[in-house]
């Protein structure tokens, strides 16, 4: 229970920094997965456990991308932008393939009682975090879906603090999307 409370607290900091497009979000992106891995493994959420390994790696990528910009020559921080149609096609195809692959592994090789939902949220989280690292405003739309499903899943699996955390994430994701759109427009008007 203590780990859930600590993870909950770090998760709130993560949200605050993500909402404000602050690169400190990547610090929480290192701490929270370490806590979450223990919790998820102990509850049999193996895909959620595994994705936290990815979260650790993408935290480094996201921090570098956000702080150095698009290229090494570009010293300006990466701007918030809209995802193009090409990005959406890539994200959709990648998500579908990941969902099937993760579901298959969970179904065939684990004792997971929720392989479809676990695989779904994991696949969406992989593409959502990549979209966040690239500062696409629509990453928030992905998180709304992930957060709703995860909140229900965590209550079902007996992880109430994380269930509440993801319910809060859902609400904040709505506001986060609007905030990032405003930040994007403010930056383009300069």
Fold and architecture overview:
- With 190 residues, the chain is mainly alpha-helical.
- It has one domain.
- The protein is built from 7 helices and no strands.
- The chain has helices at 2-19, 25-42, 46-68, 85-109, 115-133, 139-156, 160-188.
- The chain is globular and about 55 Å long.
- The model has no long low-confidence stretch (mean pLDDT 89).
Alpha-carbon Rg, integer: 16 Å
Can you write the helix and strand succession as a string?
HHHHHHH
How far is the N terminus from the C terminus?
47 Å
- Which structural class do you get from the secondary structure elements? mainly alpha
Shape, please?
globular
- Biggest sheet architecture: none
Number of domains: 1
Helical proportion, percent range: over 70%
The helix tally amounts to 7
Strand content: under 5%
Strand tally, please? Answer: 0
Mean pLDDT: 89
List the uncertain runs: none
Which short descriptors sum up this protein?
single chain, 190 residues, mainly alpha, 7 helices, 79% helix
SSE topology:
Blueprint: H1 2-19, H2 25-42, H3 46-68, H4 85-109, H5 115-133, H6 139-156, H7 160-188
Briefly characterize the structure.
This protein has 190 residues and is mainly α.
